[in-house]
Amino acid sequence: MDRNRMQKITPNPKNYFVLHRIIVSSLVLLLSCTAASGQQAPYKPLISRLAKDLDTSLYTITIKADKPPLLLDLAGSLVWSTCPPSAQSTVACGSAECGGAASQECPRRCLHVDGGQLGDSGSSCACAGNPVTRQCSTAGLTSLAMSANATDGAMELPPEESFAILGACAPDSLPRSLPAGVTGVAGFSRRPLSLPSQLAAQRGFGGKFALCLPVFAIFGDSPVNLTAPGQAPGYVDYTTVIPYTPLLTNPANAAGYYIPVKSISVAWHEADAQAILPSSALDLDPGAGTGGVVLSTATPYMIMRPDVYEPFAKAFDDAFTRGRNVPETSVERVPAPKPFEICYNAGFMRLKRPSAYDVPRIQLELGAGATWKNWTLYGDNYLVKVGGALCLGILPMGPGGMPVDGEPAVVMGAKQLENNLLVFDLEKQVLGFSMLLDFALSSCTSSTFFRN
């Protein structure tokens, strides 16, 4: 994609963020009576704990006061949860707040679990969507109580703060197939009713948020101090040293975060293999609203459209075969359990460090505007150990289609984002990415944010 095309699909960052502030301003007035009043603006950034569900490989966030966790969905447009009857539908459907929610249409391929349509009852003006089952439901808007600690970028600061955001009450059937104990979804998109957008509008601490899966999320313009071996706690603010790339917007999936990937290659020792893709295979088509490379925390593994996956798999196998530096061993393919397509016998692979296998690097070459030309995927961001095998956690799109709105060419799933510091700057419309923090002598777990 050339610079001119990219400009057509990239919104003006300042105008986009101002629009969000205008839309959310009325929500702030609605919630002011329920939000905590003990601290005066400007507020400090907030930090929340994340966790990985081992059964689904998805991530949850604990932010609802004394309530079960919510699924973290990067493309989610709002926050929803099952609610007791007394908490449901507290916002009238004719209100400005409800109008703003109704303007965020349900996904095109959403399966309604209740058969309803937005606004066909007195209070159901929001669309709550389950990104795992692709089901959705009409939902009533209400004020959701939440709590989190402030942070100075190095640790959480007591006491815990209480606040409220506008969310949706969904039927008890909607959370099916979410991680055990999860009662809803916390949307992290650029839309006005997402969790980061509402917090930025309420608290005035800047239009940024950071994720370091599976440990923490930070809301607000904050440093993120991580620790490397032999260094004092919080020695480096990683937001100042990581590369950044533009965030693109797909008109067909305005909630999604897209990045400008131009090509894909695989390298191992002296073997380099380029994936020979069809022309413009990775480009985002602003007219059709298809293609592009999008990030997702609701999809466990990277998924590629067949015309991208087939040449990529060939390049990976080529680099894997030619790049071995232990001649007396052989690369042994083993049967791949579902959902995986390619698995190898882990017995022949050597550890180059106690925590990492000596395996190929996958390079995503970024386009114009990036301060770093490659996003490198190391083994821990694409290999999945299954019994005695190591499987490629990159999958072809299934017969049911791409499980993400807008039919992207590639979805970077939760596995590819794990143990990466990701900084989403919604004012500048750029994404900071550390790549695998192990290779920066740090990790998400090396943070000192939490006292216990």
Automatic annotation (TrEMBL):
Pfam families assigned: TAXi_C, TAXi_N
Domain of life, per lineage: Eukaryota
GO MF: aspartic-type endopeptidase activity
Entry keywords, A to Z: Signal
Similarity section: Belongs to the peptidase A1 family.
Organism: Triticum aestivum
Matching InterPro entries: Aspartic_peptidase_A1, PEPTIDASE_A1, Peptidase_aspartic_dom_sf, TAXi_C, TAXi_N
Signal peptide feature range: 1-38
Stretches assigned to the Peptidase A1 domain: 55-434
SUPFAM superfamilies: Acid proteases
Name the UniProt record assigns to this protein: Peptidase A1 domain-containing protein
GO biological process: proteolysis
